[in-house]
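Encode chain A's predicted structure.
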Amino acid sequence: MRLIHITLSTAILFCTSFTLSAQDPVRITKEEIDLENALIDAELKLVLEEYEEAEQAYSEVLRTAQDNAAAHFGRARALTEMDRKDDALRSFEKAINYDSDNEYYYLALAQYQESLPDDQAAASTYERLIVVAPDRPQYRIDMAYAQLRSGDLRGGTATLETYEQEYGPQPQSTSRLMDLYLHADDEKKAIRVAQRYLDLKPNDTAIAMQLAEYQHAQGRTAEAAALYERILSVDPDHTQASLALASITSGTSASDDPLQELYAILGNASMELDPKVKQLIPFVEKFVRKDAKELGPSLARATEILLQAHPYDAKSYAIAADVQTQLGDMSAAIQNYEKSLELKSTNYQVWEQLLYLYRDQYQYDRMHDLAQEALDFFPTKAEIFLLAAFAAYHYERDVSLALDLLEEQYIMTSQRPVERYHGHLLAARAYIYEDEMDAAKGHIQRAQAIESEAAASHIEMAALLVAQSDGEAALDVLASHPAEDMARYHEVRGLALYEQGDPAAAATMQRAIDILADPAIYITWGDALFASGDKAGALAKWQLAQDALPYESSVVQDKIKSASRS
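Encoded structure for chain A:
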């Protein structure tokens, strides 16, 4: 876009030059008219992005007019588009050589050098440009930034200082100078340039905030508080300053509630949401680390206040749900994630979090419906396909749909083996359920090729052996890859022990339930009891599975009805 702008400007310049010349009493020669026309023709080729033709047209002009700066400049721009770097740089310099007062030639060269990138050369070009156009302050800023990018911190700092001496302190230069001096561990100069700016512009809040945050980070709370109060005197609704000041005063508050000073700010609807959330995060992290479990009630209250202040902001509900998840209030978290999606349906993280919550709460019916909806919004997210397949399998044992979804997930994860690993294991369980043992074994082996020592694939291999009535071999596999902290390990081991008629089977299954009260474990436990002839025990376990599910499962109900009739 910048190229076209310069090109059109140049074309207009040519046309203007031709018109003025036509009014000149001095007669214009045919050669001069032909030259003007040739330049316009070359320029049009450049505008039309016919770069090779443009370069040839400019070169043709230069054969008869070697000192034509405009032709060298046009050829340079064509060469940049053809990625002929060295030739382009030489043509830019020739254009400048024949028209050394044309600032746009220098500017185009500097910008091209920046794009290469060659910031050191760009800085030198900007230095030359400042001599040609000393009344353009932006060129000095451009030069300083080029120096800084090239690693010349001292030169860049000096250029910015010169800029402020000539044009006065400006937000852009002052902010950068503060950063540079702090990077150089020269705190006094950083504070000096900030104060110099604030003395001239006492109502500017951006630089005051930058200085206040630095003082705050250094533990100089009195200086920081004074700056925050100064900002609030100019802008009473400045969210960041309000929160920062509250964080200082909360440390000396007589209240037992560490968030007491924040509640009023969190509840101020006119203040922005993001800075409020930023202020809450350290308290949430402290709670998650188990450093301060007493923060729970305060965080719960904070989320309520936040929702009241921002009742139509999807992000407020998502943040509240995040906090409630950490607090263990899953019901409220689910409700707020759902509300967040009602207000804004494009936040992928909210969809994913809600799907996982449904899964962890065994709400497979809602997980199934939401996953199908999510597939329409995120058709390229492999994780959604895996979650949708999980829901299809666990909800009503829709194995066909689960396997179709896993096939899509498999295609998407060709470069992500860890994600593919979990897809293989779920596919194996689905094929075992369908009594397609060869297909199941193939998926388990592919999973093991990705993670050969991980316990999960060996547990599924043991489950396959149990399904083939080889409990002894299953127990051997599990013994070689023990995973005492995994419910699935104890579940499959319990099934193998039932297959062997071992009385320790029931205790092993209970161990799995103690780790994870998954209704699926009760279902397989009931299956094992029914196979061993204990119909009453099976009915009891299946009923426990139904009780643990928040919806009526046709899978469980069919088992109960079938067993009751037998």
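The chain has 32 helices and no strands.
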